[in-house]
Amino acid sequence: MKIALLGDIAFFGRASKDGNAEWETYFKDIACILDTMDYVVGNLETPFSEKRKTWGAKSAFLCSSPQNVDILKMLHVDAVTLANNHMYDYGDEAFLLTQTLLDEAGIAWYGVNGKEHLIEKNGNKIAFTGFCCYSTNPLKCVEYGHYGINEFDLKNAELILAKHHKAGYFNIIAVHAGIEHVNYPSLETIAVAKKLKQTGPMIYYGHHPHVAQPVMQQDGSIIAYSLGNFCFDDTYTNISGNKPLVKLSEDNRKSFILTVSLENNVINGFNVVPIYIGTDKIHVGRGMDMQQLTLLRRKMESAKSEEYELMRSEQRNAWLKPRRAARDAKWVLKRIRPRYFLLMLTNRLNAWKYDKHVSHYLRNNQ
Questions:
Q1: Of 37, 73, 104, 140, which cross-links 148 as Cys (Cβ 3.0–4.6 Å)?
Q2: What predicted TM-score, i.e. pTM, was given to this entire model?
């Protein structure tokens, strides 16, 4: 059984029916590749919304027109995780509409409301679960099983994976976590993946950094820290005006599809399909290939802790430098409003929850 795992899927701008009259051409090459797979799964980053009324306090809200569910069907996507930091950007209206449209399209979904996706196919029993980490500053993250986005609580995630493993399922866990625009996972994220791997063979695939991060196969498991962007475009907001809040960099455009061969619940090998987000189409064969990913992995494994964190900080700061330079008096005045004070409060609360659900548990259970 050949499974394809996709990174961040966002249907707006060029990557949408309403923003690109040539949308079928844009996705044609990648659809041909995915048509050869037995099962295709990705992270749907944009909820579908008709009213487009935002909810909560954020720096950027993402959503997509309902008609773009057709693109998922064209891409032969079988299931999506909804556990990410944008799925509740437009409140209940978009949250519920997204689930309805996916149901109508015959596309399975999981990662919210405690919902899991269990399948038996080609001699394999697979349990798909999805979680959103508080490191991504999400909205409406809740305790597993409650109404909302499945929060990433490390202890609880271990218990869920162990339950599935005991029932004879192979675990594929999607975790929305980390820092954006950095090609290396944090030391805590590495420790988290290692901890989860102890529950039994599994595939861990991450998203949110919007750039590719290392992939490794170890002890019958595959750890893919970040698959990068599958389809994304420049992000605009009411505040940013005619200039994008986030403009795609070359690093954001280069990513990959992770393909895994699974036989009788055992990984029989994996590969990557490099992809590149172009202005005309998503190019297959360009992007992050196995050699580039191997170099990232070797650099990650060889660096000492202090050197590694410095390397990550330097990359993050290089990306932030031009954004910080643009923060003049006009930029500040636009943000002196109650919503931004609420945003800062939300960020602090999420940082506390991250420490409670991840860092504290790691410190006491190494």
A1: 140
A2: 0.94
